[in-house]
Description:
Organism: Streptomyces plicatus
Low-confidence stretches: 1-27, 29-33
Structural class: alpha/beta
Number of strands: 8
Distance between the termini: 36 Å
GO molecular function: hydrolase activity
Oligomer: single chain
Keywords: Hydrolase, Signal
Protein name: Alpha/beta fold hydrolase
Radius of gyration: 18 Å
Largest sheet: 8 strands, mixed
Order of helices and strands: HHHEEEHEHEHEHHHHHHEHEHH
Mean pLDDT: 91
Domain AB hydrolase-1: 72-176
Amino acid sequence: MTLNRRTMLALGTGATALAMTGTATAAHAREHTGSVPSDSELARSLPGGFRSRCATVNGVRLHYVTGGHGRPLLLVPGWPQTWWAYRKVMPQLARTHRVIAVDLRGMGGSDKPAGGYDKKTMAADLHALVRHLGHRQVDIAGHDIGAMVAFAFAANHPEATRRLALLDTPHPDESEYDLRLLYRPGTGTALWWWAVNQLQQLPEQLMCGRMRHVIDWLFAHSLADQNLVGEADREIYAHAYNSPQAIRAGTGWYQACHQDIADLAGYGRLTMPVLGIGGNFTYEDLQRKLTAQATDVRMVRASKSVHYLPEEEPEVVAGALLDFFG
């Protein structure tokens, strides 16, 4: 079977994992492992001298984890994850870079204000953090929501962007309005989280204290091997999103897509070098959009990945980032 982004959306991610491996993905066994380690404990568990820090910038308190030595490299994660999504690549990157893995506004250990979830404002948060840390220019890589923010960072702060890498996800554009909500039986699975996260209050009421169910569903339908994201990792993500404030903030990232689409219309083509790392089913779509949005684009395919690239193929991601950022 030939699979591309259109086929993937029609099949649903669970079926794409089946197409890749020939075996169905099973739900991960849920066994409570006790209390979740703090960000400080998690940071110290990684090779590279990583430490957990916070800074108040642009009117919001941001949590970040930093370690390593060399040119600064900003890593930006997505929903429903935290900086911990980069744990498998951070030690290798830290050998030659000063790695800064940040929790976005509304994420993990960062503040969760009432607003400011459009990607331009979130990019301004990161720009202020970069300046706070004493850096004039950084390399930046983002995944999922983090890729949207990383693109906005480069578009709005080109002088501060040496190179940009986007993992699997482009900036929102008009095509988001064409996402299907309903498929005929047996023909696909809707990207329901785009619709659910547009709602006010109901997501908090439904998901508060239950985000582990959401996280397990997403991974069950997106990972060919469920062991790539273990029990402890899932507990860390669920703990970060279980509160009403965290769920509300997460919905804010999606509800801001209308403003994000309007903002994109005002951006010119990016002129700094841009790397796109696409999963096996998103590569062509990401390539098509990036070549229209930037003048200097390189592409790498993570052929065994569906969406969570830094956890599915950390060697491919780390190698591509090191080759690109130098």
